[in-house]
Amino acid sequence: MTHAVEITHRNGSDALEELRIFLVRDPEVRRLGRVRWGNPAPKAGELGDGLDVLTLVITSLLALPGFIYGVSSWVKSRGSDRDDVEIRLGTVTVTVSGTEDPAQIRQLAELLKTAYPEETPHGDGQ
Predict the structure, then answer these.
(1) Interval 23-60: pLDDT, tens
(2) Residue 125 domain-assigned?
(3) Are 44 and 29 in contact (CB under 8 A)?
(4) How does 92-109 read in b/e, with b if 16+ C-beta sit within 10 Å?
(5) Closest Cα to residue 5, out of 33, 27, 31, 45?
(6) Angle between the 13-25 and 64-78 helix axes, to the nearest 10 degrees?
(7) Residue whose C-alpha is closest to residue 64's, from 5, 126, 1, 122
(8) pLDDT for the residue 1
(9) Per residue in 98-114, pLDDT tens?
(10) Maximum CA pair distance of the chain?
(11) In a 3-state reduction of DSSP, which class is residue 79?
């Protein structure tokens, strides 16, 4: 089963294009999934620009920590404290600020995985 992870940024498509370039150049992210432009339905009362979301298509939820690390690295490289990126999987959204340590990245990944609990392995072997 594949999952589409949506990525949004407050500055819209310009910042997302920079993030897209960063992600497609990262060999680890390329191994995890495929980054492409998405076209979500605009919010009520908005037209949208048609290119205001990036999508990472992954085949396993196990790829989430590596992907979040890549996004966090990009945010950190920009050096702005107002450059947060939102990542959505299903109905769950998390914010990546570029200040996350490995434990926080794992927590964000676990939060995203709650969108598909039936695919999260149980610790008791079920």
Answers:
(1) 999 998 888 889 988 766 566 676 655 557 899 999 88
(2) no
(3) no
(4) eebebebebeeeebeebb
(5) 33
(6) 120
(7) 5
(8) 79
(9) 999 999 999 999 999 99
(10) 48
(11) coil
Q: Is residue 61 part of a domain?
A: yes
Q: Containing domain of residue 10, as a range?
A: 3-119
Q: Please give the tally of structural domains in the chain.
A: 1
Q: Is residue 110 part of a domain?
A: yes
Q: Which of 61, 39, 35 is nearest to 50 (CA)?
A: 39
Question: What's the CATH code of the domain at 113?
Answer: 3.30.70
> Does residue 35 lie within any of the structural domains?
yes
Residues 95 and 76: their CA atoms lie apart, in Å, by 13
